[in-house]
Amino acid sequence: MAERRKTIRPRKTAVRKSRTTTAKKSSPKRWSQRVTRESDALDLKRGVFKLTSAKKIAASLKRSAEHSSRRKSGAYRSALSMLTFYINRAGKTLPKTQRTRLERAKVELKHQFGRE
């Protein structure tokens, strides 16, 4: 009698079906970039968060907030929320010196809007 060889087959695992949508999805790693570009928050000056002075950052945010036609709430609220959004999205990768500068910019923003 002929000897039968057993073939080892890989186990079948459950295959997850992905949902198909008609709208094109953006990359999940770039959603904050898309939010910054397309949201109705502010029209920001390029590189505003990389400025070296907290006063300059606050002044630029204030100017952008007051002149923006895209914002839905008050100028102060829009400027502060955009600053907070940037700090939160940078997370742990934000250098400590830049984080403290941006936190000082929050305080300076309050002073420039006369909120304190």
Q: Low-confidence stretches at least 5 residues in length (pLDDT < 50)?
A: none
CA-CA gap between termini: 95 Å
Mean pLDDT: 80
What is the approximate shape? Answer: elongated
What does the main sheet amount to?
none
From the alpha-carbon coordinates, what is the Rg to the nearest angstrom? Answer: 25 Å
**Oligomer kind:** single chain
- What is the number of helical segments per DSSP (H or I, 4+ residues)? 4
Structural class: mainly alpha
| Helical content class | 40-55%
Order of helices and strands: HHHH
Strand content: under 5%
DSSP E strands, number: 0
Mind sketching the topology for me?
Blueprint (H helix, E strand, L loop, with lengths): L30 H8 L15 H14 L7 H16 L5 H17 L4
Description:
By secondary structure, the chain is mainly α. The chain has a domain at 51-116. It is 47% helix and 0% strand. It has 4 helices and no strands. It has helices at 31-38, 54-67, 75-90, 96-112. Helix 2 packs across helix 3 (75-90), helix 2 (54-67) packs across helix 4 and helix 3 packs antiparallel against helix 4 (96-112). The protein is elongated, with a radius of gyration of 25 Å. The protein starts with 30 loop residues before the first helix and ends with a helix. The mean pLDDT is 80.
